[in-house]
Design brief:
Length: 488
């Protein structure tokens, strides 16, 4: 019997051990993808996530317009309700526009009031669906879902998807940096307030208490006043005419909030709600909000996209114009070059002979005339010999000899048999078994110079002079022949 009990206990231990192993493996498997996802996340997203986790608000690139006149923005939360029509009657009488941050469930219950808000020219903002703090601030996904649900209700009644939003209870201690960033990525504008009427401190706040609270509030160029038009806020309705009169006497104008109005927002403080955010979770939420922004661009984004498109089209048109102008310039240059190349070049040696170089022989390239070495030297009365073994051309002209060494790209100049100069990296090229050289540099190497060049219209002329050898005796017949050959 004892053996049976012991065997049973051993079996139980083995089963428990296997269960622990399975649990550890499942935890490891579940942990590894998350870690892998974090390591594979976009570095830019990781950077943003890190800053948000540190509680840093990231600057929005949205721009706003400051009104010229001091302005009051009356805002009403938690409606619409049966009181909303009374508020609208007062606003109509006072010729004042306001903003209503509506709850989805209230809009669904009071569609006619919502329609009248729009019909009377007031603005609508999204105040979530049911106003339940614990649901809204335990997790951003729930907050996001409520914003979407409320928006769908509003859109189904009045065809508007409001970009203005207000967090129930305000953002202080409710929002963290993640909430702000993700809402901004979706294109929403989150409004708090800078004057609280105090009409929601408790049930049935007296009219005089609301009035004294508003009157004691600091003045600013732009004032966003928090009121409520939900059930139980009869005092808010009663005090409204007095509040409007007060600010009108101070010189304020009234307006509804728009996407151009810079929102009043509370600074980030430690949230009173317990929640956490992982990088994969943040990435998923970011994808949702950015997909929404793409599917529902607000007026600012539409204008931005249109401006970017206009600038892109302008840039494209400018680039096309530049490309067209460049092509026309190149075509004109090619035409001129072809025209120039189609004309013979007349070469006149001062004191010597004149000869023509046919268009098929010379080329104009980079503002210089290029032609075969042999052709030039022989036209001038000299001669050229090719040494195939060394790939060297020996040009003889008058008292000058020049060795064109293709292998080393050098020219060696001899005067009366004595080497007088060496040119390294010389300008020469082999084309169709001919050494091509620049006219001006070659004449310079022979001790001469180009004195004039005309390349206008149908006139192609080059005049050159060779340096006279005045330091030799005139009765030396050899030198006289050399002078004659050089045109000296």
């Amino acid at each position: 019997m004892r053996l049976q009990v012991q065997a049973l206990n051993n079996r139980r231990l083995r089963i428990q051990f296997m269960m622990v192993v399975v649990l550890l493996v499942s935890l490891l498997v579940g942990w590894m993808p998350a870690k892998a996802a974090e390591s594979e996340a976009d570095p830019a997203v990781q950077e943003v996530f890190g800053q948000l986790q540190a509680g840093k608000r990231l600057k929005s690139d949205r721009t706003y317009v400051t009104p010229e006149q001091p302005t009051v923005y009356l805002t009403f939360d938690d409606g619409p309700s049966k009181l909303t029509n009374q508020v609208l009657d007062i606003l109509d009488k006072e010729d004042v526009k306001a903003t209503f941050f509506v709850l989805g469930e209230q809009a669904k219950a009071h569609p006619n009031e919502l329609k009248r808000i729009v019909k009377d020219g007031h603005a609508i903002g999204n105040h979530t669906y049911n106003h339940v703090y614990k649901e809204l601030y335990s997790d951003f996904q729930t907050f996001w879902n409520q914003i979407q649900r409320s928006e769908d209700v509003i859109s189904s009644i009045v065809g508007i998807r409001p970009q203005l939003t207000r967090a129930p209870g305000g953002t202080a201690t409710n929002f963290d940096a993640n909430y702000f960033y993700l809402m901004e990525q979706a294109g929403y504008i989150v409004h708090d307030w800078n004057v609280d009427s105090g009409d929601s401190k408790r049930a049935n706040v007296p009219v005089n208490e609301i009035w004294q609270t508003v009157k004691a509030s600091p003045l600013d160029h732009e004032i966003n006043i928090l009121f409520h038009d939900g059930t139980g806020h009869e005092s808010s309705v009663q005090v409204l005419p007095q509040v409007i009169s007060y600010y009108k006497k101070l010189g304020y104008t009234f307006a509804a909030l728009t996407e151009q109005v810079k929102p009043k927002q509370f600074a980030i403080s430690k949230p009173k709600w317990s929640r956490s955010m992982s990088l994969p979770r943040f990435q998923a939420l970011l994808d949702q909000t950015q997909e929404y922004a793409t599917a529902h661009p607000n007026a600012a984004n539409v204008a931005k996209i249109a401006e970017e498109k206009r600038l892109a089209q302008k840039l494209e048109a400018e680039e096309e114009a530049k490309a067209k102008a460049k092509k026309e310039e190149e075509e004109e240059a090619a035409r001129i070059l072809a025209q120039q190349a189609a004309l013979p070049l007349q070469v006149h040696v001062l004191g010597g002979n004149t000869f023509n170089i046919e268009p098929s022989v010379y080329k104009l390239r980079a503002n210089q005339i290029e032609l075969p070495l042999r052709y030039l030297i022989e036209k001038m009365g000299g001669k050229v010999e090719w040494q195939a073994s060394t790939k060297t051309a020996n040009a003889h002209y008058g008292i000058y000899d020049m060795d064109y060494d293709l292998t080393n790209r050098s020219i060696r100049l001899y005067t009366l048999g004595t080497q007088t100069a060496t040119y390294s990296l010389a300008d020469m090229d082999m084309q169709n078994n001919q050494i091509i050289v620049p006219l001006r540099k070659t004449i310079d190497s022979l001790g001469g110079r180009i004195t004039n060049a005309v390349m206008a219209g149908d006139n192609r002329q080059v005049t050159m002079a060779l340096r006279p050898l005045y330091f030799f005796k005139e009765n030396n017949s050899i030198l006289k022949n050399s002078l004659f050959a050089m045109g000296g």
